[in-house]
Structure formats: structure tokens, C-alpha cells
Amino acid sequence: MKRLRPKRQAKMVTRRKTRTIYAGKVPIGGENPIVVQSMTKTNTADIKSTVKQIKSLEASGCEIIRLAVPDMSATKALGKIKKFISIPMIADIHFDWRLALEAIKQGIDGLRINPGNIGAKWKIKDVVTSARERGIPIRIGVNAGSLEKDLLKKYGHPEPEALVESAGRHIQILEEFNFTNIKVSLKASEVLKTVEAYRLFSERYDYPLHIGISEAGPPPGGIIKSSVGLGILLSEGIGDTIRVSLTAEPEEEVRVAYMILGSLGLRRKGVDIISCPTCGRCRIDLKGLVTKVEAGLRNIDKPITVAVMGCVVNGPGEAREADFGMAGGKGRGILFKKGKIIKTVKEDELLDALLKEIEE
User: Fold this and answer.
1) Is residue 38 exposed (0-12), middle (13-18) or buried (19+ Cβ within 10 Å)?
2) CB of 239 closer than 8 Å to CB of 14
3) Distance between CA atoms of 54 and 41, rounded to whole angstroms?
4) CA–CA dist 207, 153 (Å, integer)
5) d(CA 233, CA 211)
6) DSSP assignment string, 56-121
7) d(C-alpha 183, C-alpha 27), whole Å
8) How far apart are alpha carbons 165 and 324 in whole angstroms?
9) Please, which residues bridge with residue 110 across strands?
10) Burial level of 346, CB count in 10 A (0-12/13-18/19+)?
């Protein structure tokens, strides 16, 4: 008699333990959920358009928003923007400590500024003192495209070790002022270089990490690069906040981030659609049907899985773990729930029948 092997449970991702910090009321690091964030693509000084975009991102599930702050007019707009939004706001500032000080006065929830680029120690101290008084964390953002010249000379190229050494320099500056409310990112546009930099950093420090692939590009290429790089890191337990950097609308960044997290069982939000690639048995416009199903379920936040299959031969079996599903045939199709057929309907009624079943 043939013996059946016991069913193996999928191994869950074990998060690396990091310190816990807060951006506003959102906890980052430790055992807290990985936070999804994005960045506005508007002119920050344009308060109306910036608030509109942030509101849209909030509806998409964005939990922290970062804004570029290149000058004082943008800085002065931060307080007005914050009055209209509900998620923590991070000011992204380069070089000018005066912008950082004003941003803190405007009520931001976090700073992205590299202390080593500010200049004199007294300038750094002013920023650190003000941030400490308001309980505002500082993100050190190391980027392969803007490494220190001496590190480029030492390593020849922006190697992972150079990124980690640069981050270490900035951390040391803050720690000298007894400031440890820190988050770190080490980004490059090259996937494997980024992955290795985060691995090396995680071996040496326990500061929470913001992960992303810098300048990933437009979809679909940017989505693929981000999914591969971030998927590797997340599967190894590395990452406390995540941004998918795409040359696309920021809402797409948020959608893809949740899909990456969901694929690893780390967080689930909204509908996960599974569908077959089609073959010679398919007798319906499956591609068009999937597009319509996706559009019809876009506003659902509840984590459910919906299967859209091209034929009734394998549909229910291959998608038996789906919460709901349908499989098309010539002229007719079936609806199923948890792998069990619940009704047969006409082909042109499949979409409406599925959406109704899910709504009920």
C-alpha cells in the first residue's frame, strides 16, 4: 500500500529584528507590519495638487508619504498640506539645514536628510536638536548615484561595501549627538548590488530599513526589477518600510508594493486575481474578462482571492484555494467558491454574476 507523505507547511518569512521608531503614529521596525509608502510627484509648493495626490494615495493604501522639498517656498507649504491629510509626512531635503529646520517647524513627521551633507557640525546639531525635541526620526538615504568621492576612489565603483560605509559615516555623525531615532536606506538601480548592500548592513546594524530599487524605471520593467529585488530582501526578513519607485503614477507604486508583500504572505490588501495563461481550450475573451474583473473589484480592501479561468476542465481544481472564481466555456460558464461549483450561467452573464456573488 502506497504511503502518503504528510503535507508540508509553507515556511513563513522570519523578519530580522530591528529597533522600533515612529513616523507620526505609524510604528516602523520591530515586529510591526511592513509599511507601504510612496512619494508625491507634484510641485510641493502647489498645495492643491499635492493634497489631491496624497488623498488619492491614502485611498490606495499608502501609509507614509514623502515630499520633495527643494526650496523655502515648498517648505512653507508643508504645514498647510499637513492639515488636509491623514498619513505621516516625510520631508525630503538635500544639503540645506535651514530647510530642515523650517520643515520641522511646519509639523512634519520625519526627515530624509543625510547629516554628512549638511556642512558644519553646528548646523547638524541644530537639526538634530530640533528633531529630537519634536520626536522626529531622520532617514539616512544612501544612493549609489551620489556617493562620496573618496569612497568612489577607494572602491572604484559604487559597490555594496561603499554604500554601507557611507551609511555608517552618517550614522556615526548622528550617534555622536546621541541621536538614534534613525531609519536607513541603501539604494541602487542595480538589483543585485542593492540586495547585497542591504544584506551587509543588516549584519552590522539593527536600525530599521526602508527598502527600494532606485530609479527602477517604467512598468513593466520597473515592476519586474522591483519585484525581484524587494522580493529577495523581504524573503530574507529584511525591510521595515517599502517603496516601489516607478516612472508611473504613485498609486501604481502602492498597488505593486502590496502585491509584492501579498505574494510573500507578509501583508494582504484588496483582491488577488489569479488567472490562467490560456491555451487552445479557451473559447472566451479571457484577457478582456480579467481586465473587467480587476476594474470591478478595484475598490475592495478586504483581502480575497478571485480566480478567472479560461475553461471548465481544470478551472475549479487549479484555483480551489480561491475565495471566488469563474471558468468560461463556449456559451456558458461556471461560478465556484473554494473550489466547489455553485452555479452555471450564460457566458455574457459571467462577469455580473461573479461580481454579485462577491458583493453578497
Assistant:
1) buried
2) no
3) 10
4) 27
5) 8
6) HHHHHT--EEEEE--SHHHHHHHHHHHTT--S-EEEE--S-HHHHHHHHHTT-SEEE--GGGT-SH
7) 12
8) 50
9) 90
10) exposed
Hey, what's the cell of 348?
A: 455574457
Tell me, what's the pLDDT at 76?
97
**278 exposure class (CB count in 10 Å sphere: 0-12, 13-18, 19+):** middle
Q: In which residue are the cell numbers 488636509 written?
A: 84
Question: What cell numbers appear for 110 in the block?
Answer: 520625519
Q: What is the dihedral of CA 150, 155, 156, 158, to 10 degrees?
A: -90
Give tens-digit pLDDT for 223-272.
999 999 999 999 999 999 999 999 999 999 999 999 999 999 998 887 88
Cell numbers 490560456 correspond to what residue? Answer: 278
Q: Which residue has the cell 521608531?
A: 21
Burial 86-120 (b: 16+ CB within 10 A, else e): ebbbbbbbbebbebbbbbbebebbbbbbbbbebee
Q: Quote the distance between the C-alpha of residue 90 and its chain's center.
A: 15
Residue 67 CB neighbour total at 10 angstroms: 25
Comparing C-alpha atoms, which of 89, 80, 62, 103 is closest to residue 258? 62
Q: What is the pLDDT of residue 250?
A: 94
Other CB atoms within 10 Å distance of the CB of residue 298: 11
**Cβ atoms of 106 and 76 closer than 8 Å:** yes
Residue-level length of the chain: 360
Residue in the structure block whose three cell numbers are 534613525: 182
Distance of alpha carbon 33 from alpha carbon 29, whole angstroms: 8
C-alpha cell at 11: 515556511
The pLDDT score that the predictor gives to residue 162 is 96
Contacts of 149 (CB under 8 A, 6+ apart): none
